[in-house]
Each structure stands twice: as structure tokens, then as C-alpha cells.
Amino acid sequence: MDFKIRKTTREDVSSILKLIQELADFEKEPEAVEISEEDLLQDGFQENPLFTCFVAEINQTVVGMALCYFRYSTWKGKTVHLEDLIVQQNFRGKGIGKALYKKTLQFAVENNVKRVEWVVLNWNKNAVDFYKNSGASVFKEWNTVQFEEKAFKNYLNRKA
């Protein structure tokens, strides 16, 4: 099966949002996606885009994506954070995910970053094994911390 990896365009936004929702469903968080196509257009296709996205395409149909953005590490300097890598379920096992992964790593090389980082769910054994086999380190001693908007606003409004 032939596929093509390319940088996303504005025309891909609908497909990107569908893939984000598919990933949320897979990660057992179907109600978590709050962004819209308009958000993706505004944030990813402005003069200084907040993210870079690569898509996998078969017969002009988007079947996978890797979305990443720059971060800054006080230890390493400029890094890339791989936010999401998803391939539609019926296209998995065909090398598409690996090609998107390699495209993201190549993007990091082209931009002279010192580290690529991401988060993977501990129960996603296939992904964990893939990343370990590629040479990436999967840390068990670090905890991901998130503060949702409602919660951090409540915290800021607390007395004391």
C-alpha cells in the first residue's frame, strides 16, 4: 500500500480534527476534545504557527498525522514536543506510524533541536514497545502534571 507523508495544509484541518477525535476515543477520553476546525486554522496556519503537523495520505485521503511544536528545556535548549501521532485503525501495521514518527524526528534534526519528547499512556503497550525499540527512553519516575482551565482559575481565586 503506497502512502505519502507531507506537511499539512489548511485543507487538511477537517481530517486532522477527525484524527484527534479518533485518538481521544482510543485513549478513552471521547469528550475531552474541545478545539474546533477554526482553532486549528487560527493556531496552525498563522504567521507564527503554534504547531507543525505532518499527514499520511493514501489516494488523496488523510489516514494519519503527527502534530508537534517547539518547547524550551532549561537543560537542553530548543526541543520538539510530539503532541499526537495517530493512524486510523484500519491503516495500522502498514508502516504509516513509523513514517510519521521518522518525519517528526527529521523535522527535529532540520531544526537543530537537542531532544524530542512526548507522553505515552502506560497501558498502550504497542506504542511503549515501539518507542523503546526505536531507542527512545520511556521514564517511569516522571509524572505528567496537568491543570485544566476551570481548576487553575479556581486555584487563583482561592483566598489564602
UniProtKB/TrEMBL annotation:
Residues 3-160 form the N-acetyltransferase domain. This is N-acetyltransferase domain-containing protein. InterPro entries: AcTrfase_GNAT_prd, Acyl_CoA_acyltransferase, Diverse_Substrate_AcTransf, GNAT_dom. The keyword Disulfide bond does not apply. Pfam families: Acetyltransf_1 (PF00583). The keyword Nucleus does not apply. SUPFAM superfamilies: Acyl-CoA N-acyltransferases (Nat). The lineage of its organism: Bacteria, Pseudomonadati, Bacteroidota, Flavobacteriia, Flavobacteriales. Keywords: Acyltransferase, Transferase.
